[in-house]
Design goal:
Blueprint: H1 3-19, E1 23-30, E2 33-40, H2 45-48, E3 65-71, H3 72-75, E4 103-108, E5 113-118, E6 123-128, H4 136-140, H5 144-152, E7 156-166, E8 169-174, H6 181-187, E9 195-198, E10 201-205, E11 211-213, E12 218-221, H7 223-226, H8 230-233, E13 247-250, H9 251-254, E14 262-273, E15 280-284, H10 286-298, H11 306-317, E16 321-326, H12 332-347
Parallel strand pairs: 2-3, 3-6, 8-14, 14-16
Antiparallel strand pairs: 1-2, 4-5, 5-6, 7-8, 7-9, 7-10, 10-11, 11-14, 12-13, 15-16
Helix pairs in contact: 10-11
Length: about 350
């Protein structure tokens, strides 16, 4: 047995030991699949579940993905001794020697979280030493690695992107951080015809037709963005820590009617913050859309490779692409996106 498989077995046993006293099950329907989270006690529940609450569902008979979650501080169950050293931490937290065709292992030194996924069991394990120290960004978009690894096997691609749209279709907002994805997405919350799929991270499906699926109902606001959305800032879950953290919002808690779980994709849109008052748009090439989408996503995904790039390349070839000039009159952004959707629908 490979040492990665041995490690998984050891950690899986610890997770069951942690859940022996109390297990809390939470069930979700993500991109049409049932996902079950099994918590060892309540410590991690409020840190993981708010971002997923809009996808909660009844208990499935056979979940497509199961995740065990625990912390040592509240359960007393520590990780078994690990054999890797400081030089074995690779890009994205991957651990040298502990990733195989069936096992994916990462340790995030910044958040102090271990993620390990077994493809044969469709089982992911998530550990942190103390739930109280879990960073706010893990609460805003929890279990990113597990959803990425699992999604690949379901024909779904985890993407660094936002998505908004009408009931007829959505646009995928792509680009590196600071390009205007969040500003564009949050500007649309006040428009009666537009709905929110996600900000920062979504799941995309390219076949048989492009679809975008919601993962998290969260949104994060930088301090310089927050002053432009004072009506949203009052809903920040971490209002007492905005001197050190971005404002973390859970849309499900104050505008659940604005959320959609999945929508057909009509276009890829690249926002650009111009600093000018007016907003506008123009057509863009598929190659420009690929450059905006693929590197930004792959930079954050452990183990992404040419297959990930090829997936995005095939996706952008199926959709028209546009540049969105996001102006400072934020009320114009939703109308501009509606115009893009209308044009893209006619083009399709």
């Amino acid at each position: 047995m490979h040492k990665a498989e041995k490690l998984f077995e050891k950690i899986e046993k610890v997770s069951y030991d942690a859940m022996e006293k109390e297990t809390i099950a939470k069930d979700y329907r993500i991109a049409g699949h049932h996902v079950r989270l099994l918590f060892a006690g309540p410590a991690l529940v409020p840190r993981i579940t708010p971002a997923l609450e809009h996808l909660a569902c009844e208990k499935p008979d056979n979940p497509d993905l199961t995740v065990h979650l625990w912390d040592t501080a509240s359960t007393g169950c520590s990780l078994p001794p690990v054999e890797w050293g400081p030089d074995d931490y690779l890009e994205h937290g991957l651990i040298r020697g502990y990733n195989t065709q069936n096992i994916a292992t990462t340790f995030n030194l910044d958040s102090g979280t271990l993620n390990i996924f077994n493809t044969e069991k469709n089982l992911a394990l998530f550990w942190v030493r103390d739930a109280r120290t879990l960073p706010y960004y893990e609460t805003g978009s929890p279990l990113r690695n597990a959803f990425f690894w699992w999604g690949i096997r379901k024909g779904l691609q985890y993407a660094h992107a936002a998505a908004i749209g009408t009931d007829e279709g959505a646009v995928l907002l792509v680009g590196k951080g600071g390009s205007g994805k969040s500003t564009s997405a949050l500007s649309c919350l006040s428009h009666p015809d537009l709905f929110y799929i996600g900000d920062d991270y979504v799941l995309v499906q390219k076949d048989p037709v492009p679809v975008v699926h919601s993962l998290y109902n969260s949104a994060k606001l930088n301090a310089d963005h927050a002053i432009n959305f004072p009506h949203l800032l009052k809903h920040a879950s971490n209002a007492d820590r905005l001197d050190t953290e971005k404002a973390l919002l859970f849309i499900n808690e104050f505008q659940p009617q604005k959320l959609r779980k999945s929508l057909p994709l009509r276009a890829i849109v690249m926002p650009h913050v111009t600093g000018r008052p007016e907003s506008g748009y123009d057509k863009a090439s598929a190659s420009a859309a690929l450059r905006a989408l693929a590197p930004s996503s792959m930079f954050q995904l452990p183990g992404s490779d040419r297959g990930t790039f090829a997936y995005f390349a095939q996706l952008v070839r199926k959709l028209p692409a546009y540049n969105l000039r996001a102006g400072t009159r934020y009320e114009e952004i939703p109308e501009t996106i509606l115009s893009i959707l209308k044009e893209a629908s006619h083009a399709g």
